[in-house]
Amino acid sequence: MTATELATTELQRHFERTIEHDQRIEPRDWMPEGYRKTMIRQISQHAHSEIIGMQPEGHWITRAPSLRRKAILLAKVQDEAGHGLYLYSAAETLGAERTDLTDRLISGAQKYSSIFNYPALTFADVGVIGWLVDGAAICNQVPLCRSSYGPYARAMIRICKEESFHQRQGFELLLTMMRGTSAQRDMVQEATNRWWWPALMMFGPPDADSPNTAQSMAWKVKRHTNDELRQRFVDMSVPQADALGVTLPDPWLAWNAERGHYDFGELDWAEFKQVLAGNGPCNADRIAHRRAARDNGAWVREAAAAYAAKHAEGQGR
Ligand SMILES: [Fe+2]
Ligand SMILES: [Fe+2]
């Protein structure tokens, strides 16, 4: 064994011990290339989801039914922008470039959560997105606060606190509508019918179809499998639906005393694959909107870069 090989083996062992002891890998630490690539992929796809996720609800900011609802929705959508920015920064600690990640999002080389390719058709959707979409995001993200990659884990702690505000604002909006007119109650039920199944798809393909899960669990960048998290979400949502007085659109949904969990129907995986492949109801719109935002903001980035260059010049004198 050469000296370099010996040093690499030592580093590899140190990396494995860090993970074994549930300690964090930090940007300065040696890490296997596969781990670095997996983390860049996971963190940037998460960042893209936060940024694209601003669109379905952002659409309703100018049409919110009251000043109070508008202020709440603005704050929520701004939080999502903040989440995207923390996460792009976390990806940068691994050597990724934010502009490059944005280009990959726009070119379709990198994905974002399939859920944001569905339209928000009524104001009840704002409530259902908060309740179910942010609720599913919390199930996915709370375990990520213990991700083995330090900057990601720390970003997730703050993000999860804000997500729980998002979930509650959605639930509170729905509760208000359910106490309103029968037309409002119908709107909530109709929005629930449209979002329930796509929300279950947010946990990704079934475990048997999820090739990266085993490696991600071994690296402790993932703590539970897709099916475990999906089950947890279903179990959590049923009593919430009861409290609201809405019906979840699944005739197979039933308590299974033996398993201690709710049974539920089969997801439409063909639809999931279609949406992931870019053929969901809003994929093209979402990307076109993101591309326009990037192009329209070019002058701001250029001005900031010119200012930074001028400042650096002044410092050198
Ligand atoms: Fe978020
Ligand atoms: Fe959120």
Describe this structure in words.
The structure is a single chain. The N and C termini lie far apart (51 Å). A hairpin with a 4-residue loop joins strand 1 (254-256) and strand 2 (261-263). The chain has one domain: Ferritin (Up-down Bundle). Helix 2 packs antiparallel against helix 4 (67-92) and helix 5 (98-107) runs antiparallel to helix 12. 68% of the residues lie in helices and 2% in strands. The protein has a two-stranded antiparallel ribbon. The chain is built from 13 helices and two strands. By secondary structure, it is an all-alpha fold. Bound molecules: fe (ii) ion (FE2) (2 copies). One of its GO terms (cellular component) is cytosol.
